[in-house]
Amino acid sequence: MPTAALWKAPPLWKGRGMEVGVVGGTGPAGRALGARLAAAGAAVVLGSRSAERGEQAAAELRGRWAGRGLEVSGGTNVEAAEAEIVVLATPHEGVAETAAGLEKPLAGKVVVSMVNGLQRVGGELEAVLPARGSFAATVQAVLPRSSVTAAFHHLPARRLGDLDRPLDSDVLVCADSSDSAKRTAELVETMPGLRAVWAGSLAAAGPVEALTAALVNVNMRYRSHVALRLEGLRLEGRGA
Questions:
Q1: 17-222: which CATH number, 3.40.50.720, 3.50.50.60, 3.40.50.2300, 3.40.50.620?
Q2: Are 38 and 59 in contact (CB under 8 A)?
Q3: pTM, to two decimals
Q4: Which one, of 3, 27, 218, 12, lies nearest residue 115 by Cα?
Q5: 3-state DSSP: the chain helix, strand, coil percent, rounded to 5?
Q6: What is the pLDDT, as a whole number, of residue 1?
Q7: Which of 37, 32, 35 shows the shortest CA–CA distance to 66?
Q8: What is the pLDDT of residue 39?
Q9: Domain ranges of the chain
Q10: How confident is the model at residue 12 (pLDDT cuts 50, 70, 90)?
Q11: Which has the higher per-residue pLDDT, 235 or 179?
């Protein structure tokens, strides 16, 4: 588990821009995260199975937020996987196959899974739980040379992608090592208003992913865009 020193250590990207690839970056969640990261100063590549679709999504973001000078480009998922740190934002049905196909360019990197499995049953959404307990653990199994973490599951895509609206949310991070947790926390906290909280190892990713279904149901029922905020939690050296 982390110590205060984990969060107070010098940033790994100090003095230079962060290079982030979003595999599956043309979907609502991936595109929204890419926009928010680019607005915070990261160089973002939105990946897709088709380079044309990736560039189209990037062009739409640059056009929508023309006054912000977003450094966002589009390409294939392979090109996105060549970035310094990579986020997986693909649909849950094909995430293992997609990740396995990118094993070589992802080797040695932190790979952040924001994949949720959701299915509609009656009038509400239920969590899909894979055999390994979480999609993050499933991805780790097919990427043995990468450090897979889990994060960003509880941020509503519409709110995340609206750069005119500030964020105020905690992001639960699941990781098996202090280094991968730190890198993921830094990625989270490049975006103003987000606070990273280490929720445990990848063994904790299952309930974190599943909680998304309950939050989406709340948002649908109350026509809201609620996110997660842990009241009463203070992280030493980082404020409330």
A1: 3.40.50.720
A2: no
A3: 0.92
A4: 27
A5: 40, 20, 40
A6: 46
A7: 35
A8: 97
A9: 17-222
A10: low
A11: 179
To which residue do tokens 């649908």 refer?
A: 220
Type and span of the H or E element at 100 = helix 95-101
Tokens of 238: 């980082």
Q: What's the number of CA atoms in the CB half-sphere (13 Å) around residue 66?
A: 2
- State the helix-helix crossing angle for 51-64 and 28-39, rounded to 10 degrees: 50
Q: Specify whether the CB–CB gap between 195 and 169 falls below 8 A.
A: yes
Q: What span, in angstroms and rounded, lies between the C-alpha atoms of 66 and 60? A: 10
Percent of the chain residues topping a pLDDT of 90: 84
Check residue 236 and give its pLDDT: 61
**194/176 Cα distance (integer angstroms):** 21
Whether residue 6 is predicted with pLDDT greater than 60 in this model: the reply is no
Question: Once rounded to an integer, what is the mean pLDDT over residues 211-220?
Answer: 93
